[in-house]
């Protein structure tokens, strides 16, 4: 019987996370067409190269004029002005607006020199002979967006690591980034181990189950910004596992395995760790689910050996693999954002380790509540789909009580920084 099966060094989760983050090796970058970079991680700092707007911009369809010439104007006391020209969007005014004059102007067009306000068309009446009635007293600046109101040149708008979503795409387009520098997606090899595992399209057979972890993990890799490489299922055969892992190691940026990390006779990853030329960072974490989660560093790559139980696999990925993937793509906030929420039910637990319970958040009357997403045993798979957070139940056998304010880790990434 092997040494590691009975001599495991227990680490706290924070220690395990720091050990993993120590190996951050930044991804290379690539230039991608703007329309193709949605969901990618920005690899550059985006600084405003011009003000927004870069000209005095009309906020309404109406008439550009001098506010001082509208004193006393109202529905009952109209003031007559001469219309100099019509300024559509995209063209340059051809003349200044002087006293007694107004220029017809469209929303988004350049306000002509001399004008200091724009009156909405609804407050005017077109007269014959290029004249207009003004029915409202205007103040200087009304309906004009000054140069640089939204963005000043040199403003830092986005930092590396940021996920490119709709708002980021709009910023990049505004400042002329037809191609965008993004981090290359890390290629993540995913291996499920276990002689009980069937391919998804296989009929069920006695004692066998379909491999769900590989597809769950592939989705998690994509959400984290990586590119999953789903490998064929590995049998509980140590030599075959070693050969398959070695074969792929050079072609990917990291490897994730599930299963075979506990103390069973067929726990093949444990066998590998005893004979390999890699370094085992840890092989037991004080947490549930996923206490046997192990991570090693092998020939320049991290190998995350997650527990086979689906709940443990999911949580292990979130707490260890996702922070690493975020780190190699420049994100400064690598760990999950947290909040506190009121637990809506008693939660008792058996193990003395802290527990990360799959949870569902609910907002009601300005308060945040949380419930377990369903059954939470490590072997339970169906509650994963209903989880938008992990509820932290602290160490000790006590669990938590209804109405306790508990720590909650958010699974959906909020926008944390520039
Ligand atoms: N005597 C002990 N037994 C166990 C201990 C222990 O301390 N002493 N720890 C338990 C804990 S906690 C966990 S977690 C599991 C970890 O097991 P492994 O990581 O070795 O995983 P396997 O044994 O390979 O599988 C466990 C379970 O998960 C199913 N599985 C595996 N792969 C997949 C997959 N790709 N898709 C769906 N389901 C999968 C597998 O069939 C097993 O039912 O060990 C406990 N035991
Ligand atoms: O550490 Mo295990 O995942 O609780 O069953
Ligand atoms: Mg096992």
Automatic annotation (TrEMBL):
Is NAD tagged as a keyword? Answer: no
Q: In which pathway does it act?
A: Cofactor biosynthesis; molybdopterin biosynthesis
Record SMART domains: MoCF_biosynth (SM00852)
> Which EC class is this protein assigned?
transferase
Name the cofactor(s) required for activity, per the record: Mg(2+)
Which InterPro entries does the UniProt record give? Answer: MoaB/Mog-like_dom_sf (IPR036425), MoaB/Mog_dom (IPR001453), MoeA-like (IPR038987), MoeA_C_domain_IV (IPR005111), MoeA_C_domain_IV_sf (IPR036688), MoeA_linker/N (IPR005110), MoeA_linker/N_sf (IPR036135)
Q: Its catalytic activity?
A: adenylyl-molybdopterin + molybdate = Mo-molybdopterin + AMP + H(+)
* Domain of life (superkingdom): Bacteria
Spell out the protein name for this chain: Molybdopterin molybdenumtransferase
Q: Which UniProt keywords apply?
A: Magnesium, Metal-binding, Molybdenum, Molybdenum cofactor biosynthesis, Transferase
Q: Print the organism lineage.
A: Bacteria, Bacillati, Bacillota, Bacilli, Bacillales
Record keyword Ligase present? no
Q: Which residues form the MoaB/Mog domain?
A: 189-327
UniProt EC number: 2.10.1.1
Function, please? Answer: Catalyzes the insertion of molybdate into adenylated molybdopterin with the concomitant release of AMP.
Similarity comment text for this entry: Belongs to the MoeA family.
């Amino acid at each position: 019987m092997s040494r590691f099966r009975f001599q495991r060094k227990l680490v706290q989760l924070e220690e395990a996370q720091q050990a993993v983050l120590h190996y951050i090796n930044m991804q290379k970058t690539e230039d991608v067409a703007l329309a193709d970079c949605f969901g990618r991680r920005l690899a550059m700092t985006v600084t405003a190269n011009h003000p927004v707007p870069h000209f005095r911009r009309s906020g309404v369809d109406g008439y550009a004029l001098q506010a001082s010439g509208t004193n006393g104007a109202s529905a009952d006391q109209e003031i007559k002005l001469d219309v100099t020209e019509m300024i559509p969007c995209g063209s340059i005014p051809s003349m200044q607006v002087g006293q007694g004059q107004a220029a017809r102007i469209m929303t988004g067009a350049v306000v002509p020199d001399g004008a200091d306000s724009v009156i909405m068309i609804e407050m005017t009446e077109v007269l014959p002979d290029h004249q207009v009635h003004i029915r409202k007293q205007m103040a200087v600046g009304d309906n004009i967006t000054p140069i640089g109101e939204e963005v000043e040149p040199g403003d830092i708008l986005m930092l590396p690591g940021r996920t490119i979503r709709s708002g980021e795409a709009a910023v990049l387009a505004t400042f002329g980034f037809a191609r965008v520098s993004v981090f290359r997606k890390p290629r993540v090899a995913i291996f499920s181990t276990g002689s009980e595992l069937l391919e998804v399209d296989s009929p069920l057979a006695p004692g066998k189950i379909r491999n769900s972890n590989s597809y769950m993990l592939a989705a998690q890799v994509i959400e984290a910004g990586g590119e999953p490489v789903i490998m064929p299922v590995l049998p509980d055969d140590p030599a075959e596992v070693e050969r398959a892992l070695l074969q792929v190691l050079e072609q990917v940026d990291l490897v994730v395995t599930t299963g075979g990390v506990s103390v069973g006779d067929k726990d093949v990853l444990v066998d590998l760790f005893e004979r390999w030329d890699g370094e085992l960072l840890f092989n037991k974490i004080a947490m549930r689910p996923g206490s046997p989660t192990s991570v090693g560093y092998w020939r320049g790559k991290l190998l995350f050996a997650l527990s086979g139980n689906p709940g443990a696999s999911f949580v292990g990925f979130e707490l260890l693999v996702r922070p690493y993937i975020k780190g190699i793509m420049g994100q400064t906030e690598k760990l999950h954002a947290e909040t506190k929420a009121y637990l809506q039910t008693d939660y008792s637990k058996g193990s003395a380790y802290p527990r990360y319970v799959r949870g569902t958040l609910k907002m009601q009357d300005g308060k945040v509540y949380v419930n377990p997403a369903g059954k939470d045993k490590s072997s339970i798979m169906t509650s994963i789909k209903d989880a938008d957070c992990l509820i932290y139940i602290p160490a000790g056998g006590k669990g938590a009580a209804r109405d306790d304010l508990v720590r909650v880790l958010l699974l959906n990434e909020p926008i944390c920084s520039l």
